């Protein structure tokens, strides 16, 4: 598998300079794949998947965005600006900047929530969707784990220490994943600053999660999910995920009759899409959406 070339994307929205990556050209004949990352992650997460998607004879553009406050995008003025509606607006603006009017969307964790928001505000953009370990309902236990672990200790003296920490934190719920995968994951989500290896995001974006009352009934997005009923949908759930329950997947099947789902064996939240043959299943789904979208 060759290392794919990409172009850096730069555009402005809501007073911020935002960033992303474009693999290939939006003018290619197949529908572009737009990749949206998790809460503190960024476009680099999708580099291995882009390599796999673009390794075949039939090329498709892959776009991956850095949300505001992540990766190479500007930080927002404060924690109140890190919302799913704001991030959905940023993604729509980025696609308008690239001249992409319709695409297949892949959302990991928070990215799946952003897709559901886009279904409300820009349904014209969505030809198909892939949810990676998130949906209309998230489980309090999974949110509690994220709240209590993400960002607590994310400053390391060197890359080996960072990879060790990532592997130690995730080895139990990702038994299929090996050291090179954890290293790739760490290097995608961290950056070197002032001689330390740190999380590549604005720590203020975690403040709303820190204050979330997980004992109260949490908002669910079933009304937004209903807007995707006519859109081809693939849902991936990690075998050991605590954020996305099997019961939620079952209800999603009842409410979306043509939905496909698969279990990422040996992975927790959120599955690495380049591991365990998931990329092949994703590629087959993309081809199906292409076929359905032809006039």
Summarize the structure in short:
With 295 residues, the protein is of the alpha/beta class.
The averaged pLDDT comes out at 95
Which sequence of SSEs, written as H and E, runs from N to C? EEEHEHEHEHEHHEEHHEHEH
Helix content estimate? 25-40%
Order of strands in the sheet with most strands: 1-2-4-3-5-6-10-11
Basic shape: globular
What does the radius of gyration come to? 18 Å
* Multimerization status: single chain
As for the number of domains, it is 1
Structural class: alpha/beta
Which band does the percent of strand residues land in? Answer: 15-25%
Number of strands: 11
If classified by CATH, what would the architecture be?
Answer: 3-Layer(aba) Sandwich
CATH homologous superfamily name?
Alpha/Beta hydrolase fold, catalytic domain
What's the main sheet like?
8 strands, mixed
User: Distance between the terminal alpha carbons, to the nearest Å?
Assistant: 33 Å
- The DSSP helix count reads 10
Assigned CATH class:
Alpha Beta
Briefly note the CATH topology name: Rossmann fold
Pick out the low-confidence regions.
none
Q: What does the secondary structure layout of this molecule look like, with pairings?
A:
Blueprint: E1 7-13, E2 16-23, E3 33-36, H1 47-53, E4 62-66, H2 84-98, E5 103-108, H3 110-121, E6 126-132, H4 140-149, E7 155-156, H5 159-170, H6 179-189, E8 190-193, E9 196-199, H7 207-210, H8 222-226, E10 233-238, H9 246-255, E11 260-264, H10 278-293
Parallel strand pairs: 3-4, 3-5, 5-6, 6-10, 10-11
Antiparallel strand pairs: 1-2, 2-4, 7-9, 8-9
Helix pairs in contact: 2-3, 5-6
């Amino acid at each position: 598998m060759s290392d794919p070339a990409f172009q850096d994307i730069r555009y402005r929205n809501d007073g911020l300079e935002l960033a992303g990556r474009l693999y290939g050209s939006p003018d290619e004949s197949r529908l572009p794949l737009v990749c949206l990352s998790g809460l503190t992650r960024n476009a680099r997460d999708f580099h291995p998947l882009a390599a796999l998607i673009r390794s075949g004879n039939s090329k498709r553009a892959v776009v991956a965005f850095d949300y505001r406050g992540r990766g190479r995008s500007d930080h927002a003025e404060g924690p109140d600006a890190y919302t799913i509606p704001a991030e959905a607006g940023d993604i729509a603006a980025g696609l308008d900047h690239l001249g992409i009017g319709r695409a297949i969307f892949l959302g990991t964790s928070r990215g799946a929530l952003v897709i559901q928001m886009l279904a409300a505000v820009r349904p014209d953009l969505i030809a198909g969707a892939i949810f990676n370990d998130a949906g209309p309902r998230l489980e309090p236990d999974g949110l509690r784990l994220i709240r209590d672990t993400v960002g607590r200790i994310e400053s390391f003296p060197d890359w080996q220490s960072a990879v060790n920490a990532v592997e130690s934190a995730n080895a139990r719920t990702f038994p299929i994943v090996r050291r090179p995968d954890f290293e790739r994951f760490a290097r995608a989500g961290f950056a070197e600053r002032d001689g330390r290896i740190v999380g590549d995001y604005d720590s203020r974006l975690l403040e709303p999660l820190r204050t979330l009352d997980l004992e109260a009934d949490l908002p669910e997005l079933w009304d937004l999910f209903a807007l995707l009923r006519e859109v081809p949908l693939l849902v991936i759930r990690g075998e050991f995920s605590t954020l996305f329950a099997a019961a939620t997947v079952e209800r999603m099947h009842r409410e979306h009759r043509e939905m496909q789902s698969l279990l990422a064996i040996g992975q927790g939240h959120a599955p690495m899409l380049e591991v365990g043959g998931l990329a092949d299943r994703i590629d087959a789904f993309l081809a199906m959406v292409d076929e359905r979208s032809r006039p």
